[in-house]
Amino acid sequence: MDSRREQYIKEFESIFRVFNRRFLREMNQIFGDRLSYSEFLYLKFLDQKGSQMVSALSEEFSVSVSHITAVMNTLVSEGYVNRVRSEQDRRVVELTITEEGKRLITELDSVKDVHMRNSFEPLSTEEIAQLLALYQKLSTKNPSQS
Q1: Domain assignment of residue 126, given as a range
Q2: Under a CB-based contact definition with an 8 Å cutoff, are residues 72 and 54 in contact?
Q3: DSSP state of 143
Q4: How far apart are CA 128 and CA 97, in angstroms?
Q5: What is the CATH number of the domain that holds 133?
Q6: How many domains are there within the chain?
Q7: Is 45 contained in some domain?
Q8: Segment 83-116, tens digit of pLDDT
Q9: Residue 1 covered by a domain
């Protein structure tokens, strides 16, 4: 691998780490003490996809079942999620978003959208499209190519 390419990859790794930390910090700040960004993402997923089992959420977000269970316990206690026994198999418990959870997601989504528009203001539409295409290309990379 040529040294310039290697240097660009190292610089990307560094700036990506800084960008991600800043992004998460900003999201958590704009949501205040109402929700963390990860809680927001889990609620939004439940809102979009409907009832889910803990194992399905764990797989979707690549986190442990125990992590999802702990987060869901918090969201249930806050009134944003309900646990419901499956009609097909009473042994199965599904997680569903409540109306209060839906209202909160709608409100925070609007705040997030304004923040995202402001964050991308320095970039042209073409630059945003290029950035999106590059991330999509990296996201679809075959893991065996690593």
Answers
A1: 35-141
A2: yes
A3: G
A4: 32
A5: 1.10.10.10
A6: 1
A7: yes
A8: 988 777 777 889 999 999 999 999 999 999 999 9
A9: no
Three-state SS string across 86-130, please? CCCCCCCEEEEECHHHHHHHHHHHHHHHHHHHHHCCCCCHHHHHH
Q: Is residue 79 assigned to a domain?
A: yes
Is the separation of the CB atoms in 54 and 69 below 8 Å? yes
Percent of the chain exceeding pLDDT 70 equals 95
Residue 125 lies in a domain: yes
Task: Give Cβ neighbours of residue 95 (< 8 Å, ≥ 6 apart).
Answer: 46, 51, 52, 53, 54, 57, 72, 81, 82, 83, 84
Span 47-84, pLDDT tens digits: 999 999 999 999 999 999 999 999 999 999 999 999 98
Cβ count near 68 (within 10 Å): 22
The position carrying tokens 């009609």 is: 87
Q: Is the dihedral of CA 34, 39, 42, 45 positive or negative?
A: positive
Q: What's the token pair of residue 95?
A: 């997680």
Distance CA 40, CA 46 (A): 10
Give whole-number Cα distances, 118 to 2, 27, 84, in Å.
37, 13, 39
**pTM assigned to the model:** 0.82
Instruction: In whole angstroms, give the CA distance from residue 80 to residue 101.
Output: 4
